Amino acid sequence: MPSLPLPFVGALLLAILCARLVAGSEPGRRITPPLVFVAACTLDLIVVGLRWSTDLAAIRALQPVVAATLPPLAWLCFARLTRPRRRALWPHLLPVALVAVLSGIWTLWKAPIDGVLAAVFLGYAAALLRLAARGPDALAAARLDDAPKAIRSIRLVGLVLASFALVDLAIAVDVALSAGRHAALIVAAANLIALPAGAWAIATTGLAPPQQPAVPTEPPQAKTAQDDEPPADEDDLAEDQAIIDRLDALMQDRAPYRDPDLTLDRLARRLGLPARRLSAAVNRRLNRNVSQLVNDHRVAEACRLLSTTDAPVTRIMFDAGFQTKSNFNREFRRVTGTTPSAWRRDRRGAGARTP
């Protein structure tokens, strides 16, 4: 009885994930970087399955080229969240083109494809892990509610790419020691385990930047030359404190934290500051990131609504600016040490006992 190679099973699961991404996308934004990445992972597993079952020369040449597209696509999924401006795509085509050239001349000269692939995967893995190490404030164009989860996904995808680099090195060793007898099995196993993990992390993170408002909510203040860079003397906290005071006033007067699509970029524009300047001031003065600061205000608003209204907890969650129940409960417990329902019950019990 014929059996279906495991890579095809993985490709089928990723194809279902692609269909879910298309079905859940907004009209006019069907083709997104996460969808393209998951589709590339699906194609890679199909090619690996064909390589495992047929060993055709054309498939052997195509496999490293498809694999080389994965690191740049993974990077582009997250890089667009660092700043809203468009980024040049052509530099990320260079490693794919190099692998394609080496794959095309493989029969004429034993080109070091595995070594080049390992370098590509390691390079992008290092870039992603470095981005993750900067924390949620590095994703200035991401919703503040999504930024912490996105950082965790960036870290996971970076580790996945690093593991593929080790796989490419293992293939090179296998080719040197046993003429590549186990290469197909190594590639199939690695792709079947790691690719779905990376694809799922990217697909479920919430990587779509929010739509930019058509009209600025508040006129930005004039910028000075020093706004483009952090202050030269990091020990001088006077300017940082002035920024924090302006931010507190904005939070109290306009309550921007109630906007579920709030991003670091939007908040910084309302203060007339570069995003990294605001982030640096919050980090240095308050020892936290902007996402945590905004969530502190959201939790405070939720506490006010819990104690003064009979609205359902879910309604209060949205009114305070949170998008997901899991993030609301996590941040509420971080700030208050308890759950929203328990907080409301305790406050009402205390009020009933008050003479």
UniProtKB/TrEMBL annotation:
Domain HTH araC/xylS-type: 245-346
Pfam family, one: HTH_18
Signal peptide residues on this chain, from the entry's feature table: none
Keyword set, alphabetical order: DNA-binding, Membrane, Plasmid, Transcription, Transcription regulation, Transmembrane, Transmembrane helix
GO MF terms, alphabetically ordered: DNA-binding transcription factor activity; sequence-specific DNA binding
UniProt-annotated stretches for the region Disordered: 209-235, 336-355
Pro residues: compositionally biased ranges: 210-219
Transmembrane intervals: 6-23, 35-52, 58-78, 90-109, 115-133, 154-177, 183-203
Superkingdom as given in the UniProt entry: Bacteria
Protein known as: AraC family transcriptional regulator
